[in-house]
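Crash report, auto-generated. Payload:
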Amino acid sequence: MQPTPSLADRHRLEVLASIDFDDPRLRQELDRLTERTAHRLGAPVSLVTLLSHISQFFAGSSGLPAWISEVQGTPAEWSFCTDVVTTGEAHTYQDLAAHPVHETNPLVVVDGARSYAGVPLVVDGEVVGAHCVVGLAERAYTEEEIEQLRSGAQDVVAILQRYRRRETG
Amino acid sequence: MTVPAIPPVGTPPDSKETGPYRMTRPTLPEAHCALHGMYGPHTEDIWRTLLFTAGLRGDESSPAALDRLLAVMATAEPLIRLCARGLQVRIATYQHLAQAHSAQ
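Recovered output after restart:
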């Protein structure tokens, strides 16, 4: 394991650490929201990911394979959301199997993820993660679909703000 | 931010790679490396304190040693807790895949 340096910004991690993403009420709210997004975009999987320098946490999810849903995260190097978090911009991958980084990603090779669209989740000016959809077939996402994701991301951030811890570290 | 290379460690019995996922169980040196990614030059003081509280020397290689360290990290300040949570996800991922791989 090597931590991902581009994800290790101290202030970003402090903001991420301030979110109580293990609170079951938060998970319930975000699960509902990802179900809504998956339905709106016709995608088999929708996620709210929070990305540290070593792991991604699925704070809310819909349609994940059972084992990933149980673990509620993966190593950071498997995350499709890294580019969204490091650039602060929406990203889409029409064919993950042809992507230079993700073509060998176990989630692609073994679990069959094939397309991706994600938008940033910005809390206190820091991109803590992404709201995204994952498809099991090649797919080009439209600007209208990205706007729907952005709208969902605004709702996600409003929910995350309600689950901030007030302690300082 | 420069992240130190992970020193070579022994391969305990349950640290074999998990088939096509090519993953190994996190180790104490990797926990140190993960903390270094957050704290940089300030890591050593934190590391020594965590090891002392957990009753570890730092050269242990058993899964139980890492679990003890994680239990201490889980009660520390928010950034260290976040690091512990990330390591727990990696352990849970590894354990699930190791089980699935050995069942094949």
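Post-recovery validation: The interface with chain B takes residues 1-3, 5, 8, 10, 13-14, 16-18, 22, 52-57, 67, 70-76, 106, 109-110, 165, 167-169 of chain A (CB under 8 Å).
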